[in-house]
Specification:
Length: 479
């Protein structure tokens, strides 16, 4: 025994790293069955007890090797007697489940015998040429009883899969039903916008109203020979009206015998009045004709473009009425200025023939939530950084500062966050300059957050309104 202890080879006889000793101790500690007689001799038992004591004493001198505790194996729930494992091959991806899981919903496609028509006897699988990504959510509905809606999936594709597998949209869980309803509503509005020209313009105009509407609203797509003429004529008068509205504010010199510099509207009033009259008469004829020939007058009257057409002509007629009453009542100068301001809405008439401007308006409408988040974030940042700038200048005891109050710092923070930087207000202390730098970086980060969403929405709407571009290989450049 002494020679064995003096040997240079390490001896480790602890319970942890000696499996043979552990086996012997297990045999020693196991109690015999009442039906089996004790077969172990007393001498062997005594030897094992002495051997166990020797190993324990030796284990106190040697450090046992650390062992990693393993997690207990998962408990597998036994299946029902006679249950069958089913395999679904969905466009090359395999899904497995139990027949008892599908039997929970017997009125659906997978829970009924209708699925047997897709069973392959050779592979013992059900083959479906469907979307595997959406099928994963459908199969989880049988397992968990909750049908979820993935926001990244197309709403039409999702509805098609639900319809194929015999599931109703009312089966969608409450956590996802609000998003599903919102996407469904947006898709319905998109379809209305896409189908409205098709519904309003018949394939062959028969009545006078239909012919007039195809000329006015169809432009080049209506097929009527007079549609391009009306299209470019309206665009010409819109451009003349906008340019005249701009040119009348230019200084054109003084009248003969005077030194006062006058604007062109006051220097040549008859010229601009004639131009304005001709354009307004043209716009009035167009508006009345559209109102008469449109298939839905109430819809046209309250539509955004219908309101733009009305606002474009109303200031002129109100101005004529006030000019006739000026000699009797007087004091309408401020109202004349207001009416001239309203004429600027004529520029929105350009958006009628321009498809790009219409898509831009639809993009802004679809990004109301993102733009609202941007506006709210800017308001919070302006208040926060204005407070920091005011107290930073006050804490450093600047002798002269532009930040005399928190509201006076709103303008500086606004132009700094938008990286405009007029330079009319400047911090003079080092702490104020540090805060201004942080404010500028925060503005850059804040502006870039909703930009990607707006651009993606614009590309999506542009491809929807131009199917030929969406199918071309160059369409990937828009993304």
């Amino acid at each position: 025994m002494a020679d064995a202890l003096a040997s240079p080879r390490p001896i480790s006889l602890t319970r942890e790293n000696n499996p043979r000793r552990a086996f012997l101790l297990a045999k020693l500690s196991s109690k015999p069955s009442p039906d089996e007689p004790e077969q172990r001799s007393p001498s062997l038992s005594a030897f094992l007890r002495k051997f166990s004591k020797f190993g324990s004493d030796l284990g106190e001198k040697t450090q046992p090797s650390p062992q990693r505790s393993l997690a207990p194996p998962p408990r597998i729930k036994p299946r029902l007697l006679g249950d069958v494992r089913l395999v679904f091959n969905v466009s090359g991806r395999r899904f497995e489940t139990w027949k008892s899981t599908l039997d929970k919903l017997p009125d659906t496609f997978l829970g009924s015998t209708e699925k047997e028509a897709y069973f392959d006897d050779d592979t013992k699988e059900y083959h479906f040429n469907r979307d595997p990504e959406i099928f994963r959510y459908i199969l989880n509905y049988y397992r968990t009883g909750q049908l979820h809606y993935p926001k990244c999936e197309c709403i039409d594709a999702y509805d098609a899969e639900l319809n194929f597998f015999g599931l109703s949209e009312f089966s969608i869980s409450e956590c996802c039903y609000e998003d599903y309803s919102e996407h469904k509503k947006q898709r319905h509005e998109q379809l209305q916008e896409l189908l409205l020209p098709v519904l309003n313009v018949p394939t062959k105009a028969t009545t006078l109203r239909q012919k007039m509407w195809s000329i006015l609203d169809g432009s080049n797509e209506s097929g009527h020979p007079l549609a391009p003429l009306c299209y470019y004529t309206t665009g010409f008068f819109i451009a003349v009206s906008v340019l005249a509205n701009i040119a009348e504010t230019i200084q054109c010199g003084a009248l003969p015998g005077t030194t006062k510099i006058l604007h062109c509207a006051d220097r040549y009033p008859k010229v601009f009045f004639t131009i304005d009259t001709v354009c307004v008469v043209m716009f009035t004829v167009e508006y009345v004709t559209r109102l008469y020939s449109t298939p839905d007058r109430f819809r046209f009257f309250r539509s955004p473009m219908g309101l733009v057409d009305l606002v474009a002509i109303l200031p002129y007629y109100i101005g004529l009425f006030l000019m006739s009453s000026k000699t009797e009542h007087g004091g309408f100068d401020s109202l004349f200025v207001t009416l001239r301001i309203l004429r600027v809405f004529r520029v929105f008439k350009i958006s009628r023939p321009s498809q790009g401007l219409r898509i831009l308006a639809q993009t802004i409408k679809s990004c109301v939530d993102e733009l609202g988040f941007l506006l709210l974030s800017f308001m919070l940042a302006v208040v926060m950084f204005s407070t920091f700038m005011f107290y930073a200048e006050k804490l450093m005891k600047a002798p002269v500062t532009d930040f005399k109050s928190i509201p006076e710092g709103f303008w500086f923070i606004l132009v700094t966050m938008t990286t405009l930087g007029y330079g009319d207000m400047l911090p003079v202390t080092w702490l104020g300059k540090v805060m201004a730098g942080i404010c500028s970086l925060s503005g850059v980060i804040l502006i870039t957050l909703p930009v990607t969403v707006i651009v993606s929405n614009f590309n999506r709407l542009y491809c929807q309104n131009n199917p030929d571009i969406a199918k071309s290989p160059e369409a990937t450049l828009l993304g």
